[in-house]
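B., you asked whether I could sanity-check this one before it goes into the benchmark set. Here's the sequence:
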Amino acid sequence: MTGEESNSKGLMERQTTGEDRVRMTARQLSEPRTVNWIASEADWSHEPTKRVLERLVDDGILHRDESGTHTTYYPDYRRQAMQEAMRLRDSGHTVEELTDRLAEMKTQIRDWEDEFGVESPNQLRGTLADESLNADEEDRRRELAREWGQLQQRLQIVGFAIREWDFLTPTTERAEANS
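And here's what the prediction gave me:
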């Protein structure tokens, strides 16, 4: 851990409660995680972390999955997507700017498809089996596959924000427009 990471983690611990850290960690999950993993990330003990997670499940913010060997928790991805679309709508960007950004993201994905002759991040990951690749190229492809996956998720959210631009208008703006 660098000095800067250590300082920022220390600052987070000094200015937030354990419950705050669990809530922040849980809301940022991109995949299901166990209580132990969340407790470790939030730097808090297991039992209080579990109690906070259960309250978040009761409030509909998280979901619990008990089908595997360990119970995992994950956010309501629909709620996250809606909140992100509202943030985009409220960000001060115009619908034209978001449309341009959407086109840029699609162009980036097409460039990767053309460069590597693949159609998905997982197909790009599959090219890592090519024995002629050096370590730097393997790292590059692994990183691009991760970025590609994130970009695909972002495309969906930006596309939704554009499609639902009028619906996502803040309530106060709608009221003013109807007056």
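One thing to flag: Residues 79-178 form one domain. Otherwise nothing jumped out at me.
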